[in-house]
Amino acid sequence: MENCISNFKDFFEFLSYLAIIGASFTYVWSKKQVHFSTMKHCIKAFRNLDISTKDRKDKDVADYIDLVNEEFFYIENNYLHIEVAIEWIDGMIDYLPFIDNNQKVVDGGTFTIIKSEDASNTKSIEDLCKKYPRVLKTIKLNEPIDFTKIYANDKQERDKLIYLILSKLKLSHWKKIHLKEKINNR
User: Fold this and answer.
1) Cβ burial, residue 169 (10 Å; 0-12/13-18/19+)
2) Average pLDDT over residues 90-106
3) Is the pTM of this model over 0.90?
4) How far is residue 148 CA from its own chain's centroid?
5) How far apart are CA 60 and CA 44, in angstroms?
6) Is 112's pLDDT higher than 80?
7) What is the C-alpha to C-alpha distance for residues 17 and 171, in angstroms, rounded to an integer?
8) What mean pLDDT value characterizes the chain?
9) How far apart are CA 114 and CA 181, in angstroms?
10) Of 5, 121, 173, 183, whose Cβ has the fewest other Cβ atoms within 10 Å?
């Protein structure tokens, strides 16, 4: 009888281990699904925007700023892998307006979403982003960045700006520890 109870106990112990392994697998799989569906949603939203340099409408610019805000939210809340975030921010650099450490709007690259008449007006940029404090915080730079190098695709200067942007987001301490290394190794 004792042997039967022992076997019964071992059997249920084995089942509990299987349940833990199954739950762990399900968690990892669902996390990957969340990452994938988030990326898919953001890519689709970006492709649906018309932010080409010709005939750009104010609504398209506002929609792009809204999408960037949403992507920053996903980055802060771990819906995206940090490697994906780094690549997306590298792409955002070419579109976003930046306010340098002298409170002047940086003359943007070819794709910058702000129309030329608004490009020199810091107040206009701040008004555009006031509903999105996360975006405004990241485009206001507190250290010098050489944008001539940025738009010439200088990797070192772009990496510096990517790090500056990511460091302004609310990332966990663990993500920030190896952030520079991940940016440099992309």
Assistant:
1) middle
2) 85
3) no
4) 23
5) 15
6) no
7) 33
8) 81
9) 32
10) 173
CA distance 15 to 19: 6
Contacts 24+ apart (CB under 8 A), 131-136: 132/65, 132/66, 132/68, 132/69, 134/69, 134/72, 134/73, 134/76, 134/169, 135/65, 135/68, 135/69, 135/72, 135/96
So what's the pLDDT on residue 5? 65
Cβ-contact 166, 69 below 8 angstroms:
no
Quick one: pLDDT at residue 161? 95
SS3 assignment for 125-163: HHHHHCCCHHHHHHHECCCCCCHHHHHCCCHHHHHHHHH
H helices of 49-154, in order, are: 58-76, 82-92, 122-129, 133-139, 147-151
How many Å apart are CA 57 and CA 137, to the nearest integer? Answer: 24
Cα separations in angstroms, 33 against 28, 73, 103, 159: 9, 18, 41, 29
Q: What tokens were used for 110?
A: 């070819």
In angstroms, the Cα distances linking 96 to 35, 119, 129, 133 are 24, 11, 11, 14
Q: Is the dihedral of CA 88, 94, 97, 102 positive or negative?
A: positive
β-bridge mates for residue 105, sequence order: 99
Helix axes 58-76, 2-48, angle to 10 degrees: 160
